[in-house]
Amino acid sequence: MATLVTIKSSPIEDAEALQKAFKDAEALHKSVQGWGTDEKSVITILGHRNVYQRQQIRKSYQETYQEDLLKRLESELSGDFERAVYRWMLEPADRDAVLANVAIKDGNKGHVIIEIVSVLSPEEVLAMRRAYHNRYKHSLEEDVAAHTTGHLRQLLVGLVTSFRYGGDEINPKLAKTEADILHESIKEKKGNPEEAIRILTTRSKTQLLATFNRYRDDHGISITKKLLDNASDDFHKALHTAIRCINDHKKYYEKVLRGALKRVGTDEDGLTRVVVTRAEKDLKDIKEVYYKRNSVHLEDAVAKEISGDYKKFILTLLGK
Amino acid sequence: MATLVTIKSSPIEDAEALQKAFKDAEALHKSVQGWGTDEKSVITILGHRNVYQRQQIRKSYQETYQEDLLKRLESELSGDFERAVYRWMLEPADRDAVLANVAIKDGNKGHVIIEIVSVLSPEEVLAMRRAYHNRYKHSLEEDVAAHTTGHLRQLLVGLVTSFRYGGDEINPKLAKTEADILHESIKEKKGNPEEAIRILTTRSKTQLLATFNRYRDDHGISITKKLLDNASDDFHKALHTAIRCINDHKKYYEKVLRGALKRVGTDEDGLTRVVVTRAEKDLKDIKEVYYKRNSVHLEDAVAKEISGDYKKFILTLLGK
Hints:
Two copies of one chain form a homodimer. Chain A is built from 20 helices and no strands.
């Protein structure tokens, strides 16, 4: 599995890295030349390079062949395999911007936007929003707001635009008050959803974890379970997703993977998204959570459900 | 007047700048030593140094005398003069964070927050929000949201959290549709304020200017004038302020200055805020707008209304 390595800056190692990127670009060029494509070598090379190396390869390819490697791969590959390679090749902030934009266009995927902005760190969200500007000449909140209304809009725009404080301080009194406000807000849907939105979109994640814990202590049930009973409309579903992503994103991703693999026909987009975005972060932990929950290794479940080059590529990223 | 100079990075010039900062720190140290303070030399030195030089002086002072120059000045100076010098000495993003925080604590100053986030560029707003984290261990939106409710909260939090697209593209069709939405929303207050909030908090400034122009063309009156008729409650007042700051912030600042100087007793906070925050940006233009509107030079109006060291300092920043 490709892992994020610390880049050392000694000139010799820099030269070595450049030389390696050049050779990779050369091999990739060979594999896309002439009749057919050598998918195996695309998988072998790109599936084992970290984010920094992939950017160097793309640059080296552009300089050597005056062509964008990404565009070339797009035209040579197809289907789920193409989409997975394309996403893997993008820088993380840019990739998240693409995922968010696809989710906005597909009206049914608000959960992807919630997932991205709730799991990323505050600074990563800013980087993603900047990448969104560069790519789409719009702000992310502009596009989200124009496609939603009412409380769902308030929640989504709030999550997208928030720049949460990243420190570890907790205010226990606030945790108690706001656990009660959340409880009132969720109970029979009679409370004020705007206060729940305010709390979930502005408080620091550490503070929110304290609030969720306090909720469980005082109300005898976890907030996510309680919400599940009420999550019939889009707004409450979105609330549920946001809380799960903030509360324990590894458990959340496990469930996305479980759902993606259990579906008749497999949700390849969900599978690709989790594997590609977490491969260089915490996919190892997510695999463990998956095994604990399902008594089946994620790799084995994946191997059973998908096929072809797409399967080979995803298994490579999974470290098989 | 101190103006923002481009810092050249040649080693000789760097050494010269450091030497100058050291001498300034030495002179300032002398002026705050022993009985009384030599306010005149504080004004002469600090009033004629740009933002970069002031930071160097503060650093040099700390290294030489193991003391924070800002804290020392706070204890040596007093009143409006102290507040003006203190604000002048802060880096812009940090200064805006302080101004926003003071405005949140003083329930009556929402317009200052609107002014800051509507006038700054998108990237400057982010820098200010980061400075707010560092200083207060909270997010700005967290504090704003906790002190407001309803549509006023939606508008303020939206303005504070927005990271507008900064490009120059205009969508004329959108300008027409959204001019109409704004018109409906303002008319007799019967429209949907949430749509007005969405437009004003998410669209790029260039797009909003096109929308405001379209509003005037189609409805025969400028949106700010129309709003003025309806601005009786806090929400509509806030809407009015936001639109004025986005539409023409120099005209907005002129009016703040005019109001500050015309009041019985003078609004020193307003005067200081505009002069200190704009001195290294566009104070020259604002002075021109002021003269055109009042047939009196801003310096003369200021000289008439305030006195003492505060007067000398403000006039120095005004370039007198």
